């Protein structure tokens, strides 16, 4: 499986996980000139901007470690555009990371990190 397929599969798994845990998916792969947000969801009143990172091994570190300060800044700027576009300035929001890792048997393991980063 190439990186694009692995990423798409990871995002699909993350969407299923979020839906099963009471989130409503608003957008997938929302792109602007500032960057992209993998998943935009809502749970209760909270708007959640999710970055999904899939890894086949920990050789290059965890998924969360791959979301450095520069990537966070791109996500935050893109989220601000979303908030402005849909006039959601009064809605609380947070930034999550969902790590997808394969175990020895090829089964996906998911780690949801809420409030992983912010302003």
Quick recap:
The chain is α+β, with helices and mostly antiparallel strands. The protein is 29% helix and 40% strand. The mean pLDDT is 90.
Descriptive tags:
2 helices; globular; Trna Endonuclease, Chain: A, domain 1; 119 residues; 29% helix; 5-stranded mixed beta sheet
**What would the CATH topology be?**
Trna Endonuclease, Chain: A, domain 1
Overall strand count:
5
How many H/I helical runs? 2
Helical content stands at 25-40%
Helices and strands: which structural class? Answer: alpha+beta
Q: How do the strands line up in the largest sheet?
A: 1-2-3-4-5
Return residue spans where pLDDT drops below 50 for at least 5 consecutive residues.
none
Distance between the termini: 35 Å
What would your notes on this structure say?
The mean pLDDT is 90. This protein has a five-stranded mixed sheet with strand order 1-2-3-4-5. The protein has one domain: Trna Endonuclease, Chain: A, domain 1 (3-Layer(aba) Sandwich). The radius of gyration is 14 Å and the shape is globular. It has helices at residues 3-20, 69-85, and strands at residues 24-32, 35-43, 46-55, 93-102, 108-117. It is α+β, with helices and mostly antiparallel strands.
